[in-house]
Amino acid sequence: MINLELVASVFICLIVLIDGQRPYFGGCPKIKSARNVKIDKFLGKWYEVERSFYIYEIPTSCTSVNITRPNNTTKELEVSIKTFNRWTRRPIESNGKATPKGDGSAVLDYRVNSRLPDFLARLLPGAGRYTLLATDHDTYAVIYSCSDLRFLHAGLYGDILIGAVVPGPPDTVWVLGRKPDIPVWARAEAYDKLVTAGLGTDQLVLSNRKNCKET
């Protein structure tokens, strides 16, 4: 007998995957991660300062990320992402878990908390592999993400808007800060790392932090 709940879950995830990612030929580019990253020092709260343009995030503002380790016996990290939808006037919170590839690794596999089976939860928007490109632990961090689908790689993209598909970058980048903004020297270092990695900075937009209640 067909498991209707499983079929429905697969159908929903396929819609989400198609609607939230756009495939590009070739695998993800090989990007070097940051060296000498101390994960324990990277824990704590970060504010989104800049990010790749993503049409779905136009109504969002005041985005922050809090990373914690529930206990010292596990490598798994808990991630809480908070943002505010300016259109609905409501806060939004997304939670998940990130696992470093190895000791001292700056590459983390992230999955969103979900009741779906693991192989389906991996397709949810936001799930995937995240690479920490640069950080000084205390001021700024640069994070890169790309979903490798073997012969294709997928990035976030726009939806159909006024009858036209609005494309976005195949790769997604975030510049984070321990404070809502970062010093000029930190932004220069972040940009330099992106240029060196071949990602560039043209796709970046300033995060909306107007009327945010920072804590």
Automatic annotation (TrEMBL):
One GO BP annotation of this record: lipid metabolic process
UniProt entry tagged with the keyword DNA-binding: no
Superkingdom of origin: Eukaryota
One Gene Ontology CC term in the entry: cytoplasm
Keywords: Signal
InterPro entries: Calycin
Membrane-spanning ranges: none
Signal peptide residues on this chain, from the entry's feature table: 1-20
Record's protein name: Lipocalin/cytosolic fatty-acid binding domain-containing protein
Species: Polyplax serrata (Common mouse louse)
